[in-house]
Amino acid sequence: MLHYVTTNDGKVREAREYLDAVEAVDFDYTEVQADDLGPIAARGAREAYAHVGGPVLVDDAGLFLEGFDGFPGPYSAYVEHTLGVERVGELARQQAAETDETPRAQFRCVLAYCDGEGFAATPDAVDYGDRRGHDLAADERGTASTSDSVVSGDLPVKLFTGTVRGRIVEPRGEGGFGYDPIFEHDGKTLAEMTAAEKNAISHRGRALATFAEFYAER
Ligand code: ITT
Ligand code: NA
């Protein structure tokens, strides 16, 4: 049985569309301080595996504002609880107005899988263990990728990353969660989309689709 480790019900709802046999575990793993999501998720997966004793999937996500060098990024949950979503949107729009540009942003989701076993090496594997910086301009619409994260002496973890690009707008919509109301993609905010519509284009949906394919083989 796969354990989806999160304290966030919105994430669980989205994950269930890809994984039928999944048990949500409300386990608050230690979020190490890092400037990218990969190492945070990988460490979380190792800790969660030790706690659960079976296959675990940890989901670490964040909003990366392009005009603010990726802020709030790995600190998105903290910033949501302190500044709040509307204020983050206002800041991004104010700054962009000064340069007469549209504020752009990226959502990123890193899924970290650990089941105590090793993984066959993937040719394009990136070691996220030491990765720094954000590949913000990767693609106009979004990306999905897979990589191994094997830090020597540690449990092997496999990472699945999804991104989506969009514009920061005034809050609209009642669906989704977190920063969804201020993030517009193809004319709709993620909060104006149904769960299926959001999954089809979102950072989490892309990462989950890649993971589901891998997990079906595992
Ligand atoms: P867990 O760590 O327990 O999974 P969390 O909500 O703290 O739950 P994160 O650490 O990944 O999750 O925090 C990411 C922040 O980004 C948090 O403020 C979320 O509300 C927000 N977020 C994550 N995924 C999102 C999505 O799909 N749409 C909008 N906001 C999202
Ligand atoms: Na968290």
From TrEMBL:
InterPro entries: ITPase-like_fam, RdgB/HAM1. One of its GO terms (molecular function) is hydrolase activity. The keyword Ribonucleoprotein does not apply. Keywords: Hydrolase. It comes from the Archaea. The keyword Hydrolase applies. Belongs to the HAM1 NTPase family. This is Non-canonical purine NTP pyrophosphatase. It comes from Halomarina rubra.
